[in-house]
Amino acid sequence: MFGLSITKILFTAAVIFAVLYGWKWLGRIQAQRNAQGGRMGRKRRRTVGRARAETTKTEDMVRCPTCGDYVPAERPRHCGRQDCPYPG
Ligand SMILES: [Zn+2]
Fold this sequence. Notes:
Blueprint lengths: L5 H50 L5 E3 L6 E3 L16
Bound molecules: zinc ion (ZN).
C-alpha cells in the first residue's frame, strides 16, 4: 500500500530523530559558546577598563603665585624667577 515498506518507514523515523537530536545538540553547543563568550567578553572589558583608568590618571595642579603657571601639586618645579616659592 502506497509503496511504503517497513524499511522506508524505519528509515524516515530514524532521519526525523537524527534531525531533532541534532537540532537539540546544536542548540546546547550554541548556549555553551554564548556563556563562554559572555564570560570572556566581560573579562576583556574589565581589563580594558583598568588599562584605561591607569593611562588616564589625573594630577592636581597648583598655580604658581609668581608667574601664574600651573605646576604639579605633588612635585612643583621652580620656574626660574627669583621669588618662585617652589624648589629648583
Ligand atoms: Zn613660578
